Amino acid sequence: MNSINRSVSFQLSCLRAFLVISLSGIFFQASAQQPTTYTSFKPGGKWLADDGVHIDCHGGNIIYVDSLRTFYWYGEHRGLPRGASCYSSTDLYNWKNEGVVLDKGEIQIFERPKVIYDEKNRQYVMWFHYDGNGYTIAELGVAVSKSPTGPFIIKDHYRPNGHESRDIGMYIDPETKKAYIGYAADHTNLTIRMVELSDDYLSTTTNDVDIQAHCEGPGILKKNNIFYLLTSQCSGWTPNPASYYTATNIMGPYSNKGNPFIGDAGNNSFNSQPCYIFKIPGYVDAYLYMGDRWNGGGRPDSEYVFLPITITGDGKMELHWYKEWDLSFFTPQRRRPAR
Ligand code: GAL
Fold it and tell me: Nearest residue CA, atom 12 of ligand 1?
């Protein structure tokens, strides 16, 4: 290469570097905004974390770790790298991005992670939907971490007691600390099965029954010794009318009580699909509906519909639409008087 060519090539490299730096600056400005301080929930729409970027944490769950006085929100990280993300908060409105806590690597489909904290063994256990393109592997996966913010290491993946498993929900009994997974099961989610986990939450037991509920996104709560199971129908990323079921035992039998979304004009669960019901500590019967607004596809910018769930005096589950609401919706629990 002669000296003229060398100088032209040097100038082109400088121009290329300049363009890359400027364009990434423009891109960063487009995706990251000034962080906002929130004092309420606004279902749907943009929800920025402390880094000024829309929260990318779909189909997951929230846990509260008492010893750390912190909420952790886990879900699908649909941006790159794909896997599970974690956000932390002390008020449920403002979230700090803790990053990707499990990189899915070679796994083709990684969906609906649910985390539980094992207080006895001081570890965090994540269950998730493990699958291949086409959703035909249909397995449960399990991963473990010593820290709430990962990294989570995958321990196993398999079909529970030989059954297909896709969308999952989780319920932890606050008294017995027993945990259960509700999973959309055989014949491509034709029914939901409920399986009890081992005491260390690391494996499924053979206590595994077809609870004859239909069919995806199961969320579970218990009030007055009645279990309420909230599910969507099966229409991919497109929302549909939900149903809820009740039972006096978590393993059933369950009976279908219809659609709990009140005044839902679009008949589409306020344009959302259930992913979890989180019982907020410190309040009386404060059940938080966590729903995903997929907007036609599982994308990093898919939104969240968080709403309060009401169990009426006569035992019905109801969800009403609120454009904006906050935790004053619930009654704070009375603190025990100091001795
Ligand atoms: C939904 C399911 C999502 C995802 C999607 C793919 O029915 O709830 O988690 O699997 O299908 O189409």
Answer: 236
